[in-house]
Amino acid sequence: MKRIIIADDHAVVRTGLQLILEETDEMEVCGEASNGEELLNNLINNNYDLLILDASMPGKDGIDLLRDVKKISPCMPVVIFTMNNDNHYAIRMIKAGASAFINKETKTEYIIIALRRVLSGKHYFSPEQSELLAEIVSEPHKFEQLPHEQLTDREFQIMFLLATGLKNGEIAEKLKISKNTIANHRAALLRKMNMESNSDLTRYAIRQGIIE
Fold it and tell me: Which of 23, 40, 111, 181 has the fewest C-beta atoms lying within 10 Å of its C-beta?
């Protein structure tokens, strides 16, 4: 029986995933966490075969949390389970060590297929992610020239949050870093992208399909 840990700040999501996994005969939920700190402490003291991780939880989240997880459990596969539909962000998460990036609205049967594939040592990509990866491989210069591809992972994360309408203070609280740090990242990413305002970021993100 494969030991699964679920990290999500919504109890209803953790319960829903547990019910889904109870339908299988090879996966069992043996651990839960509702924030990044709780997850990391759990991983230090226990061994699991797979982590299902919400990329947007209180405390550390996203790519930073994934990298911390990989430092503690480098061989444990991680499946990102999120409401974020951005395939560009999905590719960044996969490059950072995730084995799959699944939207929370995915049908149950596909969630199970994805988890089984990851547990077999492979990656799982949605058709849209596979198409984007193929484009990146076949036309790398096209993507290297896109403004958001010049950003660091942290800058991209902040760009995404700014584009969705969050203010510096809200982002600082969410990411648990100072407002000054957010302001510095904002200034740097606007400069790299040759943009002047959050509205510019929002229009760009919509045009590129980063947000809807």
Answer: 23
71 C-beta neighbours (distance < 10 Å), count: 10
- Helices then strands, counting H and E runs in the chain, come out as 11, 5
CATH class of 2-134: alpha beta
Residue 126 has pLDDT above 90, yes or no: no
- Top-tier CATH class for 146-207: mainly alpha
- Residues 95-120 pLDDT 10s: 889 999 998 889 999 999 999 999 99
Cβ-proximal residues to 36 (8 Å cutoff; 6+ apart), any chain? 7, 57, 58, 59, 60, 61, 65, 68
Domains 2-134 and 146-207 share a fold: no
Domain chopping of the chain, boundaries = 2-134, 146-207
Single-letter amino acid code for the residue at 183: A
